[in-house]
């Protein structure tokens, strides 16, 4: 396998924007299996590069390598469960980030010295502490000015 469309590990790493040792690690945990040249060097063809891009993308969603491996080798039901759980985490994180953004937006305008003096701050903080951040607020920014 020495056609023009394959890369050695160093060039593949540059192409992917990651370190070569990361590619070797993904291989060691069974996520990548780059073919070997007749002389025994790893060669990264388009299929292997696409697999590496998929791993990187899935990592960016917060999946661990173990979870990514589970997606690759698990049963259909396992995959459905893992994806549903991850989507639940993502939705919770989105709700937290939105609540945090609303809180920070309010803090820009708030003229109260402490949270307890401001009904809006109190409401946002109380909502956060009760775990209902979806429509409430983030943790306490307790003192200002
Ligand atoms: Zn306030």
From TrEMBL:
Keywords: DNA-binding, Repressor, Transcription, Transcription regulation. It comes from the Bacteria. SUPFAM superfamilies: Putative DNA-binding domain. Pfam families: MerR_1. Coiled coil: none annotated. Residues 6-74 form the HTH merR-type domain. PANTHER family: MERR-FAMILY TRANSCRIPTIONAL REGULATOR (PTHR30204:SF69), REDOX-CYCLING DRUG-SENSING TRANSCRIPTIONAL ACTIVATOR SOXR (PTHR30204). This is MerR family transcriptional regulator. It comes from Nocardia callitridis. The lineage of its organism: Bacteria, Bacillati, Actinomycetota, Actinomycetes, Mycobacteriales.
């Amino acid at each position: 396998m020495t056609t023009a469309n394959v890369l050695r590990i160093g060039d593949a790493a540059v192409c992917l924007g990651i370190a070569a040792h990361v590619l070797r690690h993904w291989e060691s945990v069974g996520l990548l299996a780059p073919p070997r040249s007749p002389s025994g060097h790893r060669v990264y063809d388009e299929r292997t590069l696409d697999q590496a891009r998929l791993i990187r993308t899935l990592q960016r969603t917060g999946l661990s390598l173990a979870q990514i491996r589970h997606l690759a080798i698990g049963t259909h039901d396992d995959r459905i469960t893992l994806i549903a759980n991850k989507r639940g985490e993502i939705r919770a994180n989105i709700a937290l980030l939105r609540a945090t953004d609303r809180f920070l937006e309010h803090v820009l305008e708030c003229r109260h010295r402490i949270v307890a003096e401001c009904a809006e701050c109190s409401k946002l903080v109380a909502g956060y502490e009760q775990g209902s951040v979806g429509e409430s607020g983030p943790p306490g920014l307790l003192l200002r000015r």
